[in-house]
Amino acid sequence: MARRKLNRRQAWRAEKVQQERRARAEKKSAKLSRELEGSELGPEQPGRIITRYGASVDLEDSEGRIHRCLLRQNMPSLVCGDRVIWQQASTGNGVVVAMEPRKTLLERPNADGHLKPVAANIDQILVVAAPLPALDLGLIDRYLVAAELTGIPPVLLINKTDLLDDELLDYMRERVAVYSEIGYPVLFVSACQEQGLAALKEQLKDRTSIFVGQSGVGKSSLINALLPGQDIRVGELSDASGLGKHTTTTTVLYHFPEGGELIDSPGVRAFGLEHATRNQIADGFVEFRPYLGQCKFNDCRHQVEPGCAIRAAIEKGAIRPERFKSYLNIVESLD
Ligand SMILES: Nc1nc2c(ncn2[C@@H]2O[C@H](COP(=O)(O)OP(=O)(O)O)[C@@H](O)[C@H]2O)c(=O)[nH]1
Ligand SMILES: [Mg+2]
Ligand SMILES: [Zn+2]
Question: Looking at ligand 1, which residue's alpha carbon is closest to its atom 13?
Answer without folding.
Answer: 218
